[in-house]
Each structure stands twice: as C-alpha cells, then as structure tokens.
Amino acid sequence: MSTMRTVKVDGEARYDICIGPNLLGDSTLLAHALRGRHALIVSDGNVAPLYADRVEATLRAARPALTIASFVIPPGEQEKTLARFCQALDALAQLCATRDATVIALGGGVVGDLAGFAAACWMRGIDVVQLPTTLLAMVDSSVGGKTAVDLPAGKNLVGAFHPPRAVIADTTTLRTLPGRELRAGLAEVVKYGAIFDAEFLTWLEHHADALLAGDDAALSEAIARSCEYKAEVVSRDPYEHGERALLNFGHTFGHAIEAEQGYAGAGSAALNHGEAVAVGMVLAARLSAALGHAPAADTHRLQALLQRFGLPTVIPAGLEPEALLARMRLDKKAEAAGLRFVLWERAGLAKIVSGVPDDRVLDVLRGR
Ligand code: ADP
Ligand code: ZN
C-alpha cells in the first residue's frame, strides 16, 4: 500500500507536491517530473554524500539515456551567492548548451533557492524539480516558486518567481536531519496553524511528541497539511500582491533578529531562520494583544507550543530593541507612517495591519 500523499498547486502554475517515505527511490515519480535529455543535480556537501547517488540511480532507472551532472556547494546560507549562481550556470553550460535540461534541487532551502534561480535564468527558464530534504524546505521554500540568492546588502535581493515542475518530499530523508533543523522546520509548521487554522494548532499540540521523535505518519500529515495551506494561498496570489503576505507572520520581527545577528558566518549561538521566526511569531502575537486585536491567552498558547518543540520564544541576549526596530524600518515592507505587520485576531486568523506606531513596537521589543 502506498502511503504517498499528493497536494496539488493550482492556478497559473500547476504542479504536484508528493509527500511520503522513500520517494527518492521512486523512478516512476521522477520520470514523470522529468523533461529533456539532461539533468543537473544541485546539492550541498552534507546532502550530496547521503542522497545524490540514490537520486542518480533513480534517474538512470527512469531514463537510461539521460545525461546527468552534479553541482555541489558547501553547506550554509553564506553560499547562496551570485558567485555560486554563476557556477551553477557554468555547470549547465557544460552539460548542454540548450534548453533541453531539468535542474534537480536536492537539499534544503539554500539549495532550492539557488538551483531554482539558476533554472529560472538558464536560457530564460527551464524546469526545476524540487527534492527538499529539510522540513523547512518541505513545508515552505520548495513550494510557491520563490527563488533567489543573497547580496551583501541583504537576503534574497536577487531572484525570480519560478514555480517548480514538481516537488517530491521524501520524508525518510528527515531521519538524517539534525534535530535543531527539524525543530526549525516545526516553527514554520506552527505558523500555518497560527494564521489559518486553530484546529491544526490543536492537532500539533496532540502530536508534538510524535513529531519530535520523527514519526513518519505524523510528519507526513504535518507536511501535507502545511503544503495544503501554502498551495491554496500561492494558487490565489502567486506574486504576493495580497494574501500571500500573511505567510510572513512572525517574519518582520524574525528577519530583524536574523539581520541583527549577522547572517554571514553566524556562530551556533545565533538563531537560524525557523528559530528567529518562532521568536518573531510570539512578538507578533504580543503586539496583536497589546494593540487590542487579539486575546493574550492565544499568545500564551502559541508560546507554549513553540517551547514544547524546543524553540526559543524570547529575543536573544545582546540584541537591542532600538537596533531591531531600525532593522524593521529598513525592511522593504516598511512605510513612512509606521510599520506594517501581519498580526492576528485570534489563533488561526491573521490579518495585515499598517501604520503600527514605533513606540508600540518598541514596547513589545522591550518586553513591556
Ligand atoms: P533550510 O532548509 O533550513 O533553509 P539549509 O538548506 O541551509 O536550510 O539546510 C540546513 C542544513 O541541513 C544544511 O547544513 C544542510 O546541509 C543540512 N541538511 C539538509 N538536509 C539534510 C538531511 N536530510 N540530512 C542531513 N543534513 C541535511
Ligand atoms: Zn520563513
């Protein structure tokens, strides 16, 4: 019996997100997603030794005549650069000087974003198949078509909307994912409950232990439901003109924390993206309550769930409220008259609020 789950993304771009154990070995699935006579596997130095051979063998079983090359970057966000992007294009140029190729992104969000952007630009766009291997990439970055690299001036400043041809999330790969990375992904899972569905928060509360233990069925369910929420939003608003912005719940605060810590070469004491978003969601919930939009009890519930997942919920020591506020004002979403935030009315119902005065934000950053 197959335990695979499929979530369909509709609208302008249509593709399937397949979720389940051992999917990297499923040649029928990969063959279905593959076009052209060439494939470039893009991966990183942690993931490639674990899974690249298997993907290559599956591709060969699917298409014996396929030419396969690989491009492997060192792991880490600091590698999501224009220089690596150029190297990926060089790898494509060596593989084939035509559009007759598919890029296979095997890895976490860094690999997915970089490979997706290379696919978007190579000869004005070829297919990318996303094979996410982190929980964060499975529930967030591999879905929705945002691709990018970073500049010294900030994250994701150069990129394109380029939806994948397919997303194949093999949940078995999560067994080798470091626990801290798994927990970071759970922060984005919690986000979907926080903004779209209080009942999903209840489900997460009931399945927290199973999820932390890496239980396949619980993880598949959490991933499938997260992808359903995201698929629905990006189907209706692929270019983030409206409701897609709700997915940024916790991210205005979270990005400020990440920026203030410094992205490049951040030590293990620095929060990763999911951890920063966990803190950011609690701050957003507290701001909602302080502005009279939401009950304080919901903030406590959110905080308790994140803590259960081993995630931080307070601003790391050493980060100054004024400096964080200044970061948020620099953020591209800032407006002249106050900041814009995704807040909530209650658990499971988010809304966008503009013109939030600086002093109210500072109060929350200061823990008042
Ligand atoms: P994210 O998906 O969280 O945006 P990354 O792409 O940086 O971030 O991946 C996080 C880290 O986990 C990287 O060091 C990456 O090499 C490693 N990694 C990704 N997937 C796996 C896996 N399935 N097993 C082991 N390590 C992995
Ligand atoms: Zn995020």
- Secondary structure class reads alpha/beta
Sheet with the most strands: spatial strand order: 1-2-9-6-5-3-4
Number of self-contained structural domains: 2
Span between termini: 54 Å
Helix percent reads 40-55%
Approximately how much beta-strand content do the residues carry?
A: 15-25%
Q: Which ligands are bound?
A: adenosine-5'-diphosphate, zinc ion
The CATH H-level superfamily of the largest domain is: Dehydroquinate synthase-like - alpha domain
- Give the mean pLDDT: 94
The assigned CATH architecture of the largest domain is Up-down Bundle
What is the number of strand segments?
Answer: 11
Largest sheet: 7 strands, mixed
Q: For the record, what CATH class of the largest domain applies?
A: Mainly Alpha
Along the chain, the helix and strand elements come as EEHEHEHEHEHEEEHHHHHHHEEH
> Which fold does the CATH topology of the largest domain refer to?
Dehydroquinate synthase-like, alpha domain
Binding site for Zn(2+): 188, 251, 273
Catalytic activity: 7-phospho-2-dehydro-3-deoxy-D-arabino-heptonate = 3-dehydroquinate + phosphate
Pathway: Metabolic intermediate biosynthesis; chorismate biosynthesis; chorismate from D-erythrose 4-phosphate and phosphoenolpyruvate: step 2/7
Binding site for NAD(+): 109-113, 133-134, 146, 155, 173-176
Task: Provide keyphrases for this structure.
single chain
Any overview of this molecule?
By secondary structure, this protein is α/β, with parallel strands linked by helices. It has two domains: 5-176, Rossmann fold; 182-365, Dehydroquinate synthase-like - alpha domain (Dehydroquinate synthase-like, alpha domain, Up-down Bundle). The chain is 46% helix and 20% strand. The protein has helices at residues 27-33, 47-62, 82-95, 109-121, 135-141, 179-196, 198-212, 216-236, 251-261, 273-290, 296-308, 321-330, 358-365; strands spanning 5-9, 15-20, 38-44, 67-73, 101-107, 127-132, 146-151, 154-161, 166-170, 339-346, 349-356. The protein has a seven-stranded mixed beta sheet, with helices on both faces. It has a two-stranded antiparallel ribbon with strand order 7-8. A two-stranded antiparallel sheet has the order 10-11. α5 (135-141) runs parallel beside α8 and α9 (251-261) packs across α10. It is globular. The relative contact order is 0.11. It binds adenosine-5'-diphosphate and zinc ion (ZN). Zinc ion (ZN) binds next to α10. Zinc ion (ZN) binds at residues 140, 188, 251, 273, 277. Belongs to the sugar phosphate cyclases superfamily. Dehydroquinate synthase family. Keywords: Amino-acid biosynthesis, Aromatic amino acid biosynthesis, Cobalt, Cytoplasm, Lyase, Metal-binding, NAD, Nucleotide-binding, Zinc. Its cofactor is Co(2+); Zn(2+); NAD(+). InterPro entries: Dehydroquinate_synthase (IPR050071), DHQ_synth_AroB (IPR016037), DHQ_synth_fam (IPR030963), DHQS/DOIS_N (IPR030960), DHQS_C (IPR056179). NAD(+) binds at residues 109-113, 133-134, 146, 155, 173-176.
